[in-house]
Write a structure and sequence with these properties.
It is a single chain. By secondary structure, the protein is α+β, with helices and mostly antiparallel strands. The strands form two sheets. Strands 5-1-2-3-4-9 form a six-stranded mixed sheet. Strands 6-7-8 form a three-stranded antiparallel sheet, with no helix packed on it. The longest helix has 10 residues. The protein is globular. The protein starts with 19 loop residues before the first strand and ends with a helix.
Length: 156
């Protein structure tokens, strides 16, 4: 469950759990995330929830469609001053968000060109030649600034 968010230089990372709903301030207004998986040593896995109008409860927000999935150091970011985020509640994960999501991982040569792709399922890797053409999320730690920008792009 959501811990109290302390901010400032002595703040510690916030402990999040699957189901926690967060509101993130963006240039386009508030947007919502739901934590789907917390698995150390990896970053938190979240689903961005497509915006819906009106004031909604955490349970109503959680029923929204998933706009995208990402890995974010969200626990740490929430404790940093100026995170512009707040915990708003906890709700059950939708059926489609319960299994650990499949990510794709590009393997690059020395010139930086992608030579092949792997899939990562949270446990192991497997070669996946078709992954470059898929819309699966890329296994990378998304910085809060980029997360906020992607959230702002969602129609609201």
């Amino acid at each position: 469950m959501i811990a109290h968010v302390q901010q400032g230089p002595e703040a510690r990372p916030v402990l999040l759990a699957p189901g926690d709903i967060l509101e993130i301030a963006t240039e386009a207004g508030p947007r919502h995330l739901q934590v789907t998986h917390v698995r150390a040593p990896y970053p938190d896995v979240v689903r961005a929830i497509a915006p819906v109008g009106g004031t909604l409860s955490a349970a109503e927000i959680a029923r929204g469609d998933t706009a995208f999935t990402a890995m974010v150091e969200l626990s740490r970011a929430l404790s940093e001053e100026g995170a512009k985020a707040r915990a708003i509640g906890h709700a059950p994960l939708p059926e489609g968000a319960r299994a650990f999501p499949l990510f794709r991982l590009p393997i690059r040569n020395r010139a930086g060109e992608i030579v092949y792709w792997w899939h990562w399922d949270g446990e192991g890797l497997s070669v996946a030649p078709e992954a470059g053409e898929s819309d699966l999320p890329i296994r990378e730690v998304m910085p809060m600034s980029r997360l906020r920008a992607r959230l702002a792009e969602l129609a609201g």
